[in-house]
Amino acid sequence: MTTTAPDCIELRIPRRAEFVRVARMAACAIAAQLGFTYDLMKDIELAIGEACANAVEHVSHPSSDDILVRFTVEPTQLVVEVIDRGQGFDPAQQEGLDWALPGGLGLVVIDKVMDDLHVSCDPETGTCVRMIKYRTGG
């Protein structure tokens, strides 16, 4: 039996707001190539945009000049990781966000439009927002 490694596409963008659109456009192109419906493609684009915008807005560490966006194409799913060198946060504190307060809803939006979301923070490696969209529509 022959097995192949999943296809992996990496995009490194400067940690500046004007480059978030590049990550969103790449997400759209990859999702379209994989045959996602238009609505799912736009969900993926929105999620990647939110994750990258969070990295731009909340990272202040001097060594965090860029954001890595990694797309891993697997037979049943698209896995997207947005990785920055920021100081991170406690994901448990994101539970029970108040919708009436301004800002801070990026992870809530991502959680609603993607099939799976996991956030990990490590002082050595930074923050990784890992999102999954199943290719069968979830």
Range of strand content: 25-35%
* Number of E-state strands: 5
Would you identify the CATH architecture? 2-Layer Sandwich
Total individual domains: 1
What structural class should be given to the helix and strand makeup?
alpha+beta
Termini separation (Å)?
28 Å
Mean pLDDT: 84
Radius of gyration over C-alpha positions, nearest whole angstrom: 15 Å
- How would you sum up the major sheet? 5 strands, antiparallel
Global morphology: globular
- Helix fraction by DSSP (H/I, runs of at least 4): 25-40%
CATH class: Alpha Beta
Name of the CATH superfamily: Histidine kinase-like ATPase, C-terminal domain
Question: pLDDT under 50 segments (min length 5)?
Answer: 96-102
Number of helices: 3
Q: List SSEs in N-to-C order.
A: EHHEEHEE
Tell me the strand order in the biggest sheet.
1-2-3-5-4
What report would you give on this structure?
The protein has one domain: Heat Shock Protein 90, CATH 3.30.565.10. Helices cover 31% and strands 29% of the residues. Strands 1-2-3-5-4 form a 5-stranded antiparallel β-sheet, with helices on one face. β4 and β5 form a beta hairpin. The two termini are 28 Å apart. The protein contains 3 helices and 5 strands, in the order βααββαββ.
